[in-house]
Amino acid sequence: MTEFLQQLLNGLSLGAIYALIALGYTMVYGVLRFINFAHSDVFMLGAFAGYYLAPIVARVFPSGSVAGAVVVLLSAMAICAVIGVTIEYLAYRPLRRRPRLTVLITAIGVSLLIEFTSQHRLVFGPSPRTFPQLLDARTLDIGGVAIGTTQIVVFVLTAVLLAGLTFVVQSTKVGTAMRAVSFNEQAAALMGVNINRIISFTFALGSALAGAGGVLFAMSYTKIEPLMGVQTGLKAFVAAVLGGIGNLPGAALGGIVLGVVETFAGGVQGLSNYRDGIAFAVLILILLFRPAGLLGRAQVEKV
Amino acid sequence: MPAILELERVTIRFGGLTAVSEVDLALPDNALFGLIGPNGAGKTTAFNLITGVYQPTEGRITFQGSPTAGLKPHQLAAHGIARTFQNIRLFASLTVFDNVRVAMALHHPHGIAQALWRGSEFQRGERDVAQRIHELLEIFNLDEVRDVQACSLPYGDQRRLEIVRALATQPRLLLLDEPAAGMNPTEKSQLADLIRSIRTRFNLAVLLVEHDMQLVMNLCERIAVLDYGVKIAEGSPGEIRRNPKVIEAYLGEEHSPDNPPPSHRP
Amino acid sequence: MKIAGAKRWLLAGLAASALLHLFTGYTNRYYLGVSIDVAINIVLAVSLNLINGHTGQFSLGHCGFMAIGGYVSAMLTIAAHKAGIPQALTPLVFAASLLAGGVFAALAGIGVGIPSFRLRGDYLAIVTLGFGEIIRVFFQTFEPAGAASGLKGIPNYTNFLWAWGTAAITIYVVAALVNSTYGRGFLAVHDDEIAAGAMGVNTTRYKVTAFAIGSFFAGVAGGLYAHHKVFLSPTGFDFMRSIEIVVMVILGGMGRTAGVAVAAILLTLLPELLRGFSDYRMILYSLLIIILMLSRPQGLFNFVGGKRVKA
Predict the structure, then answer these.
(1) C3, C180, C192, C207: best mutation site toward chain B, by most B Cβ within 10 Å?
(2) Are residues C182 and B115 in contact, defined by beta-carbon separation less than 8 angstroms?
(3) Between these two residues, C119 and C184, which has the higher pLDDT value?
(4) DSSP string for C188-210
(5) Between β-strands B230-235 and B81-83, what pairing exists: parallel, antiparallel or unpaired?
(6) Which chains touch C (3 or more CB pairs under 8 A)?
(7) Residue A126 and residue C166: Cα distance in Å, rounded?
(8) pTM for this structure?
(9) With a CB-CB cutoff of 8 Å, which residues 175-194 of chain C face chain B?
(10) pLDDT tens track for A132-159
């Protein structure tokens, strides 16, 4: 039982990170209907932003303090938001009226560009680095289940960010505009919504969440490297599809389901080697029975 | 005359919405049959039921004496039901010629092996197909644009090409979904002549969904009226014109069948 | 019997491969290796083009089929090698192993193609991507094929003739298939599935056929690749490899066989040409992809204004 709870806890904290990244995929898909491949690299850049910011922040705030960690996290999020908006402005905006496949390939190009540039020795270099400890590592023991401080931070922050996102999307003017653009871009434009501004905002929001995911991932798993986004990003994307792409609660749910399933599968003897494949097997199974994802609504084509 | 198509108490529900409700319909062979009704009355849904895009929730459809339940659109096409679409659905990137060619495959099958071997039989078959496409396109004055991409044709030509493509499947029943939409009066009267000549020339029955009352009244021998998914009347054009239920259905929109609202002419 | 126009091209392609093959003894090994890489990529891109370009089923798992073909064919020739097959029979053994690899890949392709009648667009893309990843993970743990450390000791059978001969056959098969009354059905499925169905096209069967034929050739390409590199590693079949092939198809103009073949040549040579700037070459490569998409979004060789390319 404790073993089960422990795994569940680990799965949930991995799932929370997937959820943060998945939200960015799903939001961009909602407004632009394409898979932003570069999103996984924004996640990686978030981790590296945290890596370089931590020593600077440590000069002002005592190292290991919660305030310091929050400052690092928020700055990394801000940096990622700027990066996300810049990518959209330079690479995707000129292709707004082009077929989606064109934008998709451009996104792949941007993703490769970021990965190869980061691997260059004058940038981050290819070898892994150890992420500085932002918080004092302590482990609480609750009935035999070990909870690290980092895990608690991951849960709390994810919950706060999700609540914040829900508030922005559901209750603010800009969130309403986002939903309008997602529902029908042309009609939204006719109603006076500034499409370009909303798309930029969407990228800012999604990238900030990916940045947060990057820092939290780095805090949890301590090793960071330029290609860390590839597998994690892919899984997060799977999570977004799993939940029904374009659907925000779906992305969060998909992330958590995926994290838990993967962690449990990793704990099973004989299955652990297949851990990376399991995410996809689950995805395929679910899509066969629910072709539009867990929370997605099947779209019937009008004849 | 025996019925080529029969609908018996056909019903389809989407969730809570009953789009077509207990509709009976018998289409005589070789008929020019009109299906009319206000917007959202379920006319296109009825087409989709007949062509196998949807399966009825209740009731049964029989085509040439055999039930169509469970058959897919491509199987029904092979049985002899062809259609056009309300919002033109040509193969946009293909040429006029190739649009018809796709439909030709149904009765000129040659499969993969022959396509790869390209023997003399294959070549004879392909020449035959080309010849038949040529003949069809000639009839509809489309032969000159045979190598033009379908999506760059003028609107009226696209509508006619859709009819040619449907005819290439050698149907016994042709369903036309608002063929006159977006046409001017001259084009409409030409279209009526065309539909009449198709019926004779290709010896088939035509079921027509159309908003233009004048066209339907002039062209069709028999007309059924749908309103909110229910068949409220059926009869000759004269009977339909006088039927109080029909007038009421259209008056509900403050227009009589002879004077449909402008929104019915997209 | 008169040889039909298309078949003449195939024979010309095979003859040219054979003729050039005679001179490979005099060429630099590096150039020879690159030319074989080019041919293998042509096979991959042209076969993916049947699925993605012609039939419009967006697949992101093409190198999964390549991996299956590569491993199956390599394990067969290694076994034959160990069993002591006489030298004279090696071409036969190799051909049989390539076919076997292709058939296994095609079976997997049918398996992937069948759900595709329920899934559209991005969902299909992600299922194929997932399939590719599952294949990779499978070979990573598959002990008889060396698991994560890779499959070593594959005989070096692939030469210029095998590679370019296969490329010629692939181009011929895809082009001949599509250029027939039957084959226009693939394009119809691409343009409008509902209309295609109404015209009597069995859309599901066409999609599965496209997957079967496309993945067959991907499997053969995998076999050629295995016997060219003489070493297979699961990491060589990751999702980036599939993406590379997709990029070739899109740059070639989606559904234009000749354009896709040329794109395959250029995109294989490009990283080689950039070898002089070794530190920067992959950065330049990705920059070029972005610039190409921004400046010629309809594909490099599509001069009709991109009408063939549909979202």
Answers:
(1) C180
(2) yes
(3) C184
(4) HHHH-HHHHHHTT--HHHHHHHH
(5) unpaired
(6) A, B
(7) 37
(8) 0.87
(9) 176-177, 180-185, 187-188, 190-192, 194
(10) 888 877 888 887 788 888 888 888 888 9
Nearest chain C residue to B169 by CA: give it: C199
Q: Which residue has the tokens 């006489």?
A: C86
pLDDT digits (tens, 9 = 90+) for A63-82: 777 888 889 999 999 999 99
Pick the residue from chain C with its C-alpha nearest to A93: C294
SS3 sequence of A230-242: HHHHHHHHHHHHH
pLDDT value at residue A302: 65
Q: Least CA distance to C287: which residue of chain A?
A: A113
The CA distances from residue B6 to B44, B68, C103, in Å, are 17, 10, 47
Residues facing B14 on adjacent strands: B17
- Partners of B208 in the β-ladder: B34, B176
Q: Among A159, A158, A205, A160, which Cα is nearest to A178's?
A: A205
At B205 the three-state DSSP class reads strand
What is the spatial distance between Cα C29 and Cα A105, in angstroms, rounded to a whole number? Answer: 33
**A touches which chains (3+ CB pairs under 8 A)?**
B, C
Helices H, strands E: what count in chain A?
Answer: 11, 4
d(CA B79, CA B237): 30
Interface probe for C, chosen from B51, B91, B122 (most Cβ of C below 10 Å), is B91
C66 touches chain A (CB under 8 A): no
Spatial CA neighbour of B219 closest among B186, B190, B246, B195 = B195
pLDDT at C310: 34
Q: Is C267 on the interface with A (CB under 8 A)?
A: no
Work out the average pLDDT over C113-132: 78
